Amino acid sequence: MRTNYRAGLFAIIVLLAAPAWAAEDNTLDMLPIGRSPQRFATAALPAGKIMDAAAGHEIDLPALVRQNLKRDVFIVGEYHDSYACHLWQKEFIEALAKEHSRLLVGFEFFNRADDTALDLYLSGKISEAELLLKTGWYVRGSMNFAYTRMVLETVKKLGLKAVGLNVPRELVNRVAKRGFAALTPAEQAMFPGVGRTDPEHEYYIRSTLGEFAVQVPLWFQNVYVAQKCWDTVMAESMRLALARPEFRGYKGIIIAGSAHVAYGLGIAWRYRQRDKRASILTMVPVTVAAKKDEAGEEENPMVKALAGQLQPAAIFSRGLADMVFSVAAEEKPYFAEAGFSGRMNAEGLYEIAGVGKESPTEKSGLRVGDRILAIDGMPVKSLEALRLILAQKNWGDQFELDVRKKIELKISDK
Hints:
Number of domains: 2
Oligomer: single chain
CATH class of the largest domain: Alpha Beta
Strand order of the largest sheet: 4-3-11-9-5-8-6-7
Distance between the termini: 26 Å
Number of helices: 15
């Protein structure tokens, strides 16, 4: 049975491969770890502000850039689906480029093998759509490219250079499942020094993964080695790129998830293992949660009164990064997300595996097990094709699904 639906876009919560920090929980921002002398000191920062963690005071972006022009590498953390984080990265790159025009920007979500395609895109020889197809952006995952576009378009506009920092995800996934020994000698060589471990980094990654990492230590052992591989290859990719003759005199900017940057224990630590002379600046975001009106009935009246006068702010350890920038919690993704998930089945059809509860698509009748044959008349022949089509949609848009319904015959109780 085939049916057509018109459905609005809405957001659903997805689990990412990398550890994510909950906006309402700042526990992971408060750990007394890392090498900073300020790791035992805490600070509060309102949304839209920057703090020089060592000095303990706020700083604006132009001053941050001027004071750190002698740095070799800038590592900027992000929440992958945060508009505010990517806007901050964009503005940082613009500010730094005004003072030093030779910049090389490395992206976590592009691979080393994508460098040629990135060069073609930045020189205007291929379109964004061609870039996404050549690099397999939506083959690797469903992360909306629109967030990365904010930064990459700035790189293009300013005439800067860009490189991919990663290796095929399959390699890291193999390590996570079967251990480092599952890689061939040639593959292992991509991760120099990965055998070294910082105990505080191991503690941090275990903390991001929660009680499962503690209760299933054998599982965590391989997952942690995979995390080290990830950090190692991104650090090494930038180090090797900056060592190339054409990038002599360039400064590097690494764009990666905050879990790879926090406390200087991930990419920064790995980079310094290979280049002890490198001067590195780490920058990590913290989230300011929306202010809550309700208060506990048993809370001290004086505390309640004082709390009502406080400006919403993120609380964090000053050892979190060299520079900490705060962003406001976002109630929903800035860029539209489809309200269903699924996979290509044995018949080569996209089969729905999940539908958001009480969502427009659920209300329109889409159910688990249904097959999507086309979107807006365009056949869905692969997961990449579906993701590319949906990525063009904005909030409030409508789209038409050509659906083959799953019908289950049941015996009536009557």
